[in-house]
Specification:
single chain, 84 residues, mainly alpha, 5 helices, globular
Amino acid sequence: MGFYKYNRCQLSLFASSIDERLPADDKSRFVVKLVSQLKLDKLVNRYSRQGNDAYPPEVMLAVWFYAYSEGISSTRKVENLCKY
């Protein structure tokens, strides 16, 4: 088992990246920067090697930090937030 690969600079179907769509002062940029500075080695090492690939902990943590900062705890609402 490993982690899914991701690229925040990947272009979408409409040939524009997330960086081009989000304002420079968007809260999500702050959350991603904050999470990237955390030491998550112990968390990553605790992941089981069994089963399918998992989403990287830094991605999931950033999603939940952002959701909670918006007052959202419902997983359905978090899904809609991810679409944003």
